[in-house]
Amino acid sequence: MGFFERLSNVWKGFLSLWVSDIESKNPEAVYESAIEERIKKHRELKKAVSGIVYLRNKISAELEEKEKELAEISVQIPVAVEEGEDEAALILIQKRDELTSSISDLRIELDKVSSQAEEAKEGLIAFQGEIEKLKREKEEMLAKKANAEARIQIRETLDGLSTDADIKALENVRESIEKAQAEADVAGEIAGESLDSKLNKIKSKAATASARQELEAMKKQMAAKKAAAQGEAAAAASVKKTM
Q1: Cβ contacts of 30 within 8 Å, gap of 6 or more
Q2: By CB neighbour count within 10 A (0-12 exposed, 13-18 middle, 19+ buried), where does 71 fall?
Q3: 93, 119 in Cβ contact below 8 A?
Q4: What burial class does residue 68 get, using C-beta atoms within 10 Å of its C-beta: 0-12 exposed, 13-18 middle, 19+ buried?
Q5: Number of helices followed by number of strands (H, E) in the chain
Q6: Nearest 5°: phi and psi at 192?
Q7: How far, in Å, CA of 33 to CA of 54, rounded?
Q8: Which letter does DSSP use for residue 194 in this model?
Q9: Which of 110, 131, 166, 223 is the most buried (most CB within 10 A)?
Q10: pLDDT digits (tens, 9 = 90+) for 139-162
Q11: How far is residue 187's CA from residue 207's CA, in Å, rounded to a whole number?
């Protein structure tokens, strides 16, 4: 192996590693390229299949035409014989035999081409299924890649954190919350002992006593009015009775 040949092999090796590295870092581009290549081949295959189907249809139409012609000639031969047209009858018989042979060949060819057309269509459908399968695989693999990268990032983040720092931070938060709770408890405990609280209680009791006195006075007034009304009614009834 010569120097330049070895150098070429080394270069090919480096190029292969470089391409592999690019592909591993850009999986979506690799999938897209593979899918696009398959779509291109699918179009080519579809064009080939259409050619086979066209040939099948052409043979089928030709066969149908010759069978129709044979049916017509088969009817004409007896007529020619009855009319004594031997020459015409001979020509019709020869044509009938040619058509029969041609129809037999066409049927064989049509069966062959029809079989090829069906196989080609099945292959086309299967190839389309492979493209769809590759598209689904792309989505699944990219989702797995994103999930793996997220897990790696989380792990790297956790590995980069100090456990002692985490514990200290938690202790500070707990202490801060407990202090706030203690302040709230103290505020609640001394709220009932403050001067403002006592004055509010006295004010509330005074208001209640005043309202109660007013209520009692109203009750007495209403009772007095009721008694006076009853007395006047009794007096009026006595006067009326005396008269």
Answers
A1: 23
A2: exposed
A3: no
A4: exposed
A5: 5, 0
A6: -75, -15
A7: 32
A8: S
A9: 110
A10: 888 888 888 888 888 887 766 655
A11: 27
Q: How far from 99 is each of 55, 78, 225, CA to CA, in Å?
A: 20, 17, 137
What separation, in Å, do the N-terminal and C-terminal C-alpha atoms of the chain show? 161
The rounded distance, in Å, linking the Cα atoms of 228 and 219 is 14
CA distances from 230 to 151, 225, 226 (A): 95, 9, 6
The helix/strand/coil state of 86 is: helix
Measured CA to CA in angstroms, residue 128 lies from 42, 88, 121 at distances of: 7, 57, 10
Q: What residue segments make up the domains of the chain, in order of their start?
A: 3-160, 197-242
In sequence order, the 6+-apart residues with CB closer than 8 A to the CB of 74 are: 96
**With 0-12 CB in 10 A as exposed, 13-18 as middle and 19+ as buried, what is 203?**
exposed
Distance (Å, whole) CA 197 – CA 191? 7
CB 42 within 8 A of CB 128: yes
Q: How many CB atoms lie within 10 A of CB 123?
A: 13
pLDDT computed for residue 192 by the predictor:
52
d(CA 37, CA 80): 64
Domain 3-160 has what CATH class?
A: mainly alpha
The pLDDT confidence band at residue 197, using thresholds 50, 70 and 90, is low
